[in-house]
Design brief:
about 425 residues; alpha/beta; Rossmann fold; 2 domains; 11 strands; about 45% helix; elongated; methyltransferase; S-adenosyl-L-methionine; lipid metabolism; methyltransferase activity
């Protein structure tokens, strides 16, 4: 009798103590749940074992990456419906140990165990990174960056498009093109830094060289771009050569802690500081402050999370940590501003561009889905599934104000206290 889906749907609702908002189709062909909702396809019993042996987000992520579960219908709608059960349960949600004291919860869990079959925990998908601590040494940072960025330049070209910019674009209108929005973002950074010809710019986490090339070509500055990714550096150097800018742009494989050839007139750090880690952030800010000349500006473009009432309860996102950004950490924007000021900077402007990142991510997802077969060929089915889930879920997180992204403009003031900033702020608009 094909009844796995009705049993599973009922057991999940019993475990959650709330309606399960999506339809379920099980491995035996049975279905249950709201008829007009997206469908969660549970392809095998192994998916249940993954969830039971690693309850919560990581177990679900493993099932998704391995292809044990799939979504039929609109992915954004499904994730939006599931967000309140998975990502947004809040600080007051009961822990697993608390739930296990509930007889109804224990009964539902036993029912799932019976439905899952022999209790052998499957191995995690090969795309998962296994770590225990966030050390943020030069070696562990290099390994983490390699995991994320050395997936393959061809894959990133497919997702990011010709701009090859892997950070939030700056949109004039949702109807605009991704390439125009990324160009406008790079120009916004240059204007905030007030770049002029013959200045020296340090681009920390330079990626595939887009900011370095734009600043050198459009503003006449000399640029040093640093990255920990060998693949990014090779790609960026070729782009620099093709643009005829080798006399103005140098790309290095180098840790920010090892840059010693300051002073620079300006520093851009776009989407890099998320990799620094809370234990190293003051060191990062202090290092950049020391590399700037007095009067020089830093533009720090960084994703931020919302603060917790009790920061000791904060835990790194399990899926992102295991599959996307190993050792990545998000901090509230207030913490970032505080650390920059502790390092000696004067923070002059903070601009939130949260909605812009949601638009950017949706464009990246659309490009990935349109070239799905090619993406799988360039990486692996699991890796392509990681990027699709990560980007779609992140788009919703920005839209729902679970996370944000901010451009923080800071200055290393002169010893006299002079900042060199104009009297009227936001002259870059």
């Amino acid at each position: 009798m094909a009844d796995a889906a009705p049993r599973l749907h009922a057991l999940v609702e019993q475990l959650l103590g709330a309606p399960f908002p999506v339809r379920v189709r099980a491995w035996d062909g049975s279905q249950a749940g709201p008829p007009d909702a997206p469908t969660l396809v549970v392809r095998n019993r192994r998916a249940l074992r993954r969830l039971l042996f690693k309850p919560g987000e990581l177990g679900l992520a493993r099932a998704w990456v391995a292809g044990d579960v799939e979504i039929e219908g609109d992915l954004y709608t499904a994730l939006d419906l599931l967000a309140g059960l998975i990502w947004e349960r809040g600080e007051d949600a009961r822990t697993l140990s608390e739930a296990l004291r509930d007889p109804q919860f224990r009964a539902a869990a036993r029912g799932l165990l019976r439905l899952a079959g022999p209790p052998l925990p499957p191995s995690p998908p090969p795309e998962e990174v296994r770590r225990t601590t966030h050390l943020h040494t030069r070696r562990t940072d290099r390994r983490a960056i390699s995991h994320h960025y050395d997936v393959g330049n061809d894959f990133y070209e497919l997702v990011l498009g010709p701009s090859m910019v892997y950070s939030c674009a700056y949109w004039e209108s949702p109807a605009g093109t991704l390439e125009d929005a990324q160009r406008d973002k790079l120009e916004l950074v240059c204007r905030k830094l007030a770049l002029t010809a013959d200045q020296r710019l340090l681009d920390v986490g330079c990626g595939w060289g887009s900011m370095a090339i734009h600043a050198a070509r459009e503003h006449g500055v000399s640029v040093v771009g640093i990255t920990l990714s060998q693949e990014q550096a090779a790609y960026a150097r070729k782009r620099v050569a093709d643009a005829g800018l080798t006399d103005r742009v140098e790309i290095r494989v180098q840790d920010y802690r090892d840059v010693t050839d300051g002073p620079y007139d300006a520093i851009s750090s776009i989407g890099m500081a998320e990799h620094v880690g809370s234990t190293r952030y003051l060191e990062y800010a202090t290092a950049l402050h020391a590399l700037l000349r007095p009067g020089g500006r830093l533009l720090n473009h960084q994703i931020a999370r919302r603060p917790h009432r009790d920061e000791s309860t904060y835990h790194v996102d399990e899926f992102i940590d295991a599959y996307v950004f190993p050792d990545g950490e998000l901090a509230p924007v207030g913490s970032t501003v505080t650390q920059l000021e502790r390092a000696g900077f004067e923070v002059r402007d903070v601009e939130s561009i949260r909605e812009h990142y949601a638009l950017t991510l949706r464009r990246w997802v659309a490009r990935l889905e349109a070239e799905w077969a090619r993406a799988v060929q360039l990486t692996s089915p699991g890796r392509a599934r990681v990027w699709r889930l990560y980007m779609a879920a992140s788009a919703l997180a920005f839209e729902r104000n679970r996370i944000g992204v901010n451009q923080v403009l800071a200055v290393r003031t002169q010893p006299s206290g002079t900042s060199g900033m104009p009297l009227r702020a936001r002259t870059w608009n």
